[in-house]
Amino acid sequence: MSFPPKYLARIIAVVSLSSLLAACGNDGNSNGSSSVAGAANSSASSSLIKVNQLGFLPESSKLAVVPDVPATSFKLLKAGTAIEVFSGTLSAAKVWDASRESVKVADFSSVKTPGDYQLHVDGLANSHVFSIAPDVYNALNAASIKAFYFNRSGVELLPEFAGKFARPLGHADTQVLIHPSAASDARPSGTVVSSPKGWYDAGDYNKYIVNSGISTYTLLAAYEHFPEIFNNQNLTIPESGNALPDLLDETLWNLEWMLTMQDPNDGGVYHKLTNENFDGTIMPHEALRERYLVQKTTAATLDFAAVMATASRVFAPYETQLPGLSAKMRKAAESAWEWANIHPAIVYKQPSDVRTGEYGDKTLSDEFAWAAAELYITTRVDGYYTALKPVDVFNSVPSWGNVNGLAWVSLAHHRAQLTNVADQTLIASRIKTLADNLLSTWYASPYKVSMEKHDFVWGSNSGALNQAMMLVQAYRLNGKRDYLDAAQAQLDYVLGRNATDTSFVTGFGEKSTLHPHHRPSEADGIPEPIPGFIAGGPQPGQQDKADCKAVYPSSVAAKSYLDNYCSYASNEIAINWNAPLVYVSAAIAALTPK
Ligand SMILES: [Ca+2]
Ligand SMILES: [Ca+2]
Known about the structure:
CATH architecture of the domain at 168-422: Alpha/alpha barrel
Distance between the termini: 35 Å
Shape: globular
Bound molecules: calcium ion
Structural class: alpha+beta
Radius of gyration: 23 Å
CATH topology of the domain at 168-422: Glycosyltransferase
Number of helices: 18
Helix content: 25-40%
Strand order of the largest sheet: 1-8-7-3-4
């Protein structure tokens, strides 16, 4: 299903915003240099073998997509040689309507020997080099978490942690103003409050509670589900070597900010901490505009409640290191829940002087369900389960504005610890029904993915990964191997088995995203992007067309991707897109048989 883009105002007011951006000398500027190359790449990409450019675990399902050429067989070669290690038969050709290509599939799952390989099909260029290795996703998983460190607000990134991407402190946010939209008796307009830390949301430097909700939860869920992947991981962040797993240290950086976004006087949570307008293409320390806390909303307050309830249980074992934190989070979650029940329908309304992302969401039943589920799991108070209204809550692939699925993910994971009020059959059935739908798409897909044409919406790569996350839940419930293979296919998709022949993760793969819409990556003067970020991905809306001098190589859904800084509609990065990359890369590594 589709979900609303963050930049609703930007799309509606694209003309005025374009002139604004031109005045700021930022997003509207692209170097234009990739437009010719982009067009050439488009026609070329249809004649290429598409494969996960990182590669596979020895026991992974291993598929590649091959253009519809006369050849009926393929060979697996040792990389850079003509030495054949395997040969197989290509599937019959089928047309994928999302990319308007006729393709065949090569299956080399039986090859399990570690090494570097290329696929060969007569009449085509050999594929990118990829690996089969037991640690093939370790660096990817670490970098996808480290990306959050690179997006930290309120701290200098030192060379010992950030290498050449070191930068001065930006956005201390220790003196931000209560915006008129957020004024209350206790905190009138213009009140100065402190709201430091947190992650920049995306390519911009603002901080939004709604999107922090799903992002922070997804990282916490990755830890709850697969602690063995993270317990000894060293991300080379300032907290490496302390008593906490680095993933939890990184997540805590944002949780500490989120806690400051709750009004201590009533429990309500501010929707965002933001400038009035987007910054230009400048480094964080150069962005000095006034910052505001804007309007309390029901969605922000419920997302906050869900995340704090989750964090309360995840951090409970660390009472010695973080005394009182778990209890403080639980209390914050409970008071947020109470505020939301008194104010059940306060929807975000963008003030006339604010032009940053909206994350507006008018459907709040899913936020209520998710918050209730997490509070129930953490507190074991049956009333929260009843408030969840489980029979009325269906399961769906999660997105920032549609979080029903997160409730079912958590309930399924904790099913053995729930009280008697929980309907175990319903929980299992919700997980299975959604996963079976995704699985039937995967069975029939010419590209062997569960992405369909209608899934190519803003942030489509996160859709692919959130589909994988939901397939993983079904695999964890009943062990049916097809769920895991279909989840693997989604990871393959974002790492190169897609119609653009691109690995969408910066720094990973022979042909990967180079020019993400990410201000630090563009403004730092370093040619390559900061590694570990996943781009939004193809979608045919092209809402940035008026701001881009560069030309999209294609308007076809699965090919409508522009690797240019100007393309906020297909090439921005965002915390809610990186979070499922962390989850899925960990899940595949943890669950694939050794
Ligand atoms: Ca640590
Ligand atoms: Ca919603």
